[in-house]
Design a protein that fits this description.
single chain, alpha/beta, Metallo-beta-lactamase, Chain A, 2 domains, seven-stranded mixed beta sheet, about 25% strand
Amino acid sequence: MDGFEVNILGCGSALPTTRHFLTSQVVNLRDKLYMIDCGEGSQLQFRNLKLKFQRLNHIFISHLHGDHCFGLPGLISTLSMLGRTADLHIHAQPDAEKIFRPLLDYFCKELSYKVFFHAFNPNKSELVFEDRTLRVSSIPLKHRVPSAGFLFEEKPKSPHIIREMIDFHKVPVSQIGAIKAGAAFVTPEGETIPHAVFTRPAEPPCKYAFCSDTAYYEKIIPLIEGVDVLYHEATFSHADIVRAKETYHSSAQQAAQIARAAKVKKLVIGHFSARIFNENILLDEAMEIFPDTILANEGMKLAIEHK
């Protein structure tokens, strides 16, 4: 796969319901999988969505409330039963290893692979992970416990080669890589032809932001400005704004206000309260402020792309 998509495994909040699984998502970037949060039932949803366990190497935990991480020990155990040998990397706040390492030592004594915990500071924005195609940065949120969202930024792609120009100027195959990297081509006659003659720009890199759990928090706006898709919690409707403030969650209106202020391209709302039986109420509230809003749902695949 040569794309960027987000799979919604669960979009419910802390109290389990028959309507939603607990929070978990899987970012799929060119067939590499990155999990965000791991609530109970996440590994079942992994199966349901026909995602490949062996493609998953990094898990990002937003905060240490059970509905976002209680599925982690079970998933780690299952991966071992499947014969995994590749290392698994878990990115979370420092207390995560203190909590989960004893559980793994007790329940998963004979893992077939190694689990590494990588701590980051949830109180500031910092680079959490980077490889050849992706950067993941933390987004400090406002919740009852230290909590961070994540910004997934695709790295710029190499420009596309214009085959007709390569053939016309008889460019050797051995020099195509250098031209894509920005080098000029020198003909046998000594003429220098700039690389722009042989290339056209690649599609702009895409960005996805995950922001849950959090109260209304304007400080995240510059960190998510202009992203292609924003997932923002909308636990409550405006009618329950007092409850939202008490629990450090957001209403659908507040999620839309953040999206509008940050000039994002699309808003996806989720982390629905068990009190909400008709989520279209939340959608209507959000769309009054930010029309390009959709409801998250289990099994949804979000294409992260430029409009």
